[in-house]
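User: I'll paste a sequence; please echo it back and then give the predicted structure.

Assistant: Echoing your sequence first, then the prediction.
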Amino acid sequence: MPESQASQDSPAIASSALTKHFGRQLVVDAIDLDVPRGAVYGFIGPNGSGKTTTIRMLLGLIRPDSGACSLLGHDMPSAATGVLPRVGALVEGPAFHPYLSGQANLLRVDAADRRSDPETAASRVASALDRVGLTVAAAKKYRAYSLGMRQRLGIAAALLQPRDLLVLDEPTNGLDPQGTREVRHLVTELAGDGTTVFVSSHLLAEVEQLCTHLGVMRAGRLVAQGPMSELRALTATRFRMRTTDPVPALAVLATLGVSDGAPVDGGIVGSLGQVAPEWIVQAMVRAGISVAEFIQVTPTLEDLFVQLTGEGFDVSG
């Protein structure tokens, strides 16, 4: 469908007070998503935080109880027929015919698309298989595919047509390190071509390397979202100082406003807050305290995740 200027200027994904119950359980609680065009948006949260349910509402697979959402500037699910052909999706793992080859499965998927030209189907399928590294396994039956190969075939199915938006729910599930790198490279390549990528993942290290924007879910609520650089600023930068004079050093830190300094083996750790590292070192020198080493520790995405959700690192959903 041709896009109006207003649609082109709108976010790739947007929602307003999007809410869903399953029975009496509130699964998604009035979330307001804002995914800019061209972003690689990481959608993270503990198991059961509502990520997959949110994705299913965005794609029109289930209806929200209240609130609204849009894809590429068009309201869902009313505009699903027109907008979904421009959206590639992999949700809750791929589903294919086990007795058919990877190539044959993709040909069936392509044939189900009314926009597809049968004369160019073979070349589209070959290109999609090549992009996900499955050319050598094209003739192998799907039932013989590993979990990682099945994930990649699902991504290939989402890439049979040019897409303005790609929605991936745990795309690296079951992949070995090499397969994970390949998917990361593919997402980066797609984003470089202008495709907006919305990726739900529990692999925080991958999200940290890949994403430009982030949304964090906790117990059905969107507790933070925005550019990765801005969200990192929510987590205090910490330091580690090696010194043989920890007691007087702690006293000096207190005068500078560092209230959480704590002694550790060989020195002190604490949060910088608004205190510049050079101020701390200068104050220590003026007080006659030896500083053998001062290290500024940049907060990781895991630090932010734990701060916002209260959950540990190894989570999925």
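The chain has two domains: 5-226, 238-298. Residues 202 and 316 are 5 Å apart (CA to CA).
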